[in-house]
Amino acid sequence: MTDTEELRRRTQRLLDQYPPATTDRLDFLRARFDAGLAWVHYPEGLGGLGAPRSLQGVVNAELEAAGAPDNDPRRIGIGLGMAAPTILEYGTEEQKRRYLRPLWTGEEVWCQLFSEPGAGSDLAALGTRAVREGDEWIVNGQKVWTSSAHVARWAILIARTDPDVPKHQGITYFVCGMTDPGVEVRPLRQITGEAEFNEVFLTDVRIPDTRRLGRAGDGWRVAQTTLMNERVSIGGMAVPREGGMIGPVARTWRERPALRTHDLHQRLLRLWVEAEVTRFTGERLRQQLVAGQPGYEGSGMKLAFARLNQEISGLEVELRGEEGLLYDDWTMRRPELVDFTGRDAGYRYLRSKGNSIEGGTSEVLLNIVAERVLGLPAEPRTDKDVAWKDLAR
User: Fold this and answer.
1) What pLDDT, on the 0 to 100 scale, is given for residue 309?
2) Can you give the pTM of this predicted structure?
3) 8 A C-beta contact, residue 346 and residue 324
4) Residue of 194, 230, 297, 316 marked active site
């Protein structure tokens, strides 16, 4: 499928058969998936048509013009941006057909069980254990910083299945049911007052081997697909001019001239230009995706995203003066998504501190860019050939 006009005709047929104004939202989304118009670059039968990724914009524009509902991508971002591409690459045909449709329609929310209290930046040091027992794996351990765990049906999970080999080996990748016995989710309250993140405790959780993605012991390689897509989804999001964090600051500057100073003006100009450069770099990265899998450029974009958000939110607090120190609501809540632009300056300032941690810490990403993009010598690592069970902890 490479014909733009044929794609428009297919989209119009969908709209004729399921008029958005009179069709239930979920029924429309299911029909769109079945018509291959969910993500057109996926294979037929899995929400796509095997078309070039660039043609997705044709479908989106036609549906938006007709007032068709979307699948609320911000709410299900982990499923769309991380779980789906990993399932597509490593899942069995049965797994793809079971998980991808309800994932895309938003009927089943996904979360990510990777980081642990002792394995965040050094993720390969994870200690959650999965032991094979017949056709099942018995999992015990703790995960942390888990977005959406309190509303998720499924999780992508990596666990240690062989402690007798070096830490990057002996890891296996699973799909874990968040409603299964032994899965306990606890809120993790943040500096914003909310509990957007969670701790997840796994106690004798039984995962059928049919929920394993990739070969046993090959989980680190499978996880790299997830992580590369995660960084692209965080740092390479499509935004309009003055979208994201720079928008509220620019509006305040224009609407309230009494707050202006020469120093703040110079800093705003620099950050505005950097935001535009980052926006266009993200667009270039998304165009590169048309040709294949994301590369390590996503790590650079994620670095820029975190630094810019923190600098821009700091400038906004300074621009607003005493008003910038106010905070709208410290009520303990467990939101389903992060809303940077719908809250006040205080929230943006506090929440942006997490941008340099989530999706890979900035320190680790600097190493990735240095070694894998710039080709600089790798840092000495004395534990690469040491069995995980022999590592100092």
Assistant:
1) 94
2) 0.89
3) yes
4) 230
